[in-house]
Design goal:
heterodimer; A: 204 residues; mainly alpha; B: 169 residues
Chain lengths: 204, 169
Amino acid sequence: MREREHSKIVRVLGVLLVAVAVLAGRPALAHIIDGSAAGGFLGGFSHPLFGLDHVVAMVAVGLWGAFLGPPAIWLLPIAFPLVMALGGAIAILGGPVPGVEIGIALSAIVLGSMIALAARPPLMGAALVVAAFAIFHGHAHGAELPPGTDAVSFSVGFVMATGLLHLTGIAFGLLTRWPAGRIGVRAAGIGIALVGAAFLSKAV
Amino acid sequence: MTGLLQAFVGGFMNPLLTPAHALTLAALALCVGQQKKRGAALIVFALALIVGFLVIVLAVEETPARLVLLAGAAVLGVMTAAAWTPQSVVCLLAGMAGAALALDSPPQALTIAEAYATLAGTAVGACAILVGAATIASHANADWQRLGLRILGSWIAASAILVLAVQLR
């Protein structure tokens, strides 16, 4: 039964990665018509990848979801982008969210600790924790949206990159089906929490 | 004749190469693909598209069609993510999307004939993309495939929400 679940998840990951690869081909096509669309997509896609604090937190969401198993494995990566977009919208519309950098660093610490401790809170609790931190990440990205870029392409690229980081975490998290893998994933949780602590010390 | 053909092809490609249109069509296709009776939503979309083009021919002023398209994409994406796709709501949103897509596609043409060819190309292109994508989505019957659709739905909704915020800024 558990093997069947993992097989399903691996297939979802495969299809989504192919979909991303296909959609990522859009800029080359769009470039013929509008150069800013290509620039917007690449800018958005690279944006979450060039901040270590963002990267570790996004991977942690996927890792924790994989650790918790179904339905968290798919619920967290579905909920995160939606709430993150709300955070981004707040920033774009000029709404303040206090302590964004601290919130982002705390997200890595909390999520990393949850993984390291193999914490299994109720699904709603896990979703609320992830959603609360998604606001901070979304706000940071939204506030840094470069003026003059193609907003649609930028947003699609940025959401896709975030989703890919979640999928990376889920793929890594599937190692938990083996005892050695569980240790590896929990060790990764410690690493994520340490990165978060380093960023927190800078932010405070 | 070549000019008309070029205008038609340009119109045909327009929904695919305009990111907001592609986003909305993708979101609508995911929702329609999960319906048992897909015909109703597709017909409503096509009729609304034609009505929208008739309004364009009557030379209306600029409309907030882009905002309606993006709001529709966000709602449709959330519905797909939540796996909640009642037919009446999907039909309503299909109608809104069709009309808004048409109103957001004013042709850039030198002659009246080329403008009509562009509009016809856009209508055929939008319907073809929607039917094709909905057909693909309708084959997602296995649990893992439906899960993939839900994740794609959440990505589309998130993108649309961000772009809406940019447009409203």
